[in-house]
Amino acid sequence: MNIFGVVGWKNAGKTGLMERLVTEICARGHSVSTVKHAHHSFDVDHPGKDSFRHRNAGAREVLLASGNRFALMHELRDRPEPSLAELLEKLAPVDLVLIEGYKRDTHPKVEAHRAVTGNPLIAPDDPTIKAIASDTSLRTDRPVFDLDDTRAIADFILAEVGL
Predict the structure, then answer these.
(1) pLDDT digits over 73-113, tens only?
(2) Tens-digit pLDDT profile for residues 107-160
């Protein structure tokens, strides 16, 4: 499975870039799935709903299905967070999986960077970062793209993964 990540510090533009890349790459006829790492507890369910009640009662997995979509919620119940590799095994085959976050994993990545955040680049200490998408010019040994040049960033990613 082809995978490529988007990493960066908070407010660097990762999610906007991910959204634009999915739109661009799908428009080119490729199938895309995404994985997003959350650094905090999150819930896609709501108290009082049947699926929430099932989980609250102790179900390890709850699959919620309709004519439009299905969602599988899996409670870890004090087990360790699954690795990225374990999570990728749960996805149906697609042309490309774009991963937001997981900056410490070893898959290839593009770093989103906004000067206004004042954060340093991650790239100098991370050889898995193959390019940088920034709102400012940078001096680096990696290719640098304008953060808003989605087409060029998509071209780069697709070339890197061989699509």
Answers:
(1) 899 988 999 999 999 999 999 999 999 999 999 999 999 99
(2) 999 999 999 999 999 999 999 999 999 999 999 999 999 999 999 999 999 999
Strand partners, 111: 7, 132
Write down the residue that tokens 């898959």 correspond to: 107
Is the pTM above the cut of 0.85?
A: yes
Closest CA to 156 of 9, 36, 24: 24
Q: Which residue matches tokens 């999570």?
A: 87
Which two structure tokens, joined as six digits, stand for 17?
Answer: 């870039």
Give φ, ψ of 53 to 5 degrees.
-65, -40
136: containing domain: 3-40+80-161
In a domain, 144, yes or no: yes
Count: domains in the chain? 1
Task: Give domain status of residue 69, yes or no.
Answer: no
**Structural Rg of the chain based on CA atoms:** 18
Q: How many CB atoms lie within 10 A of CB 162?
A: 6
The residues that bridge with 55 in the sheet, in sequence order, are: none
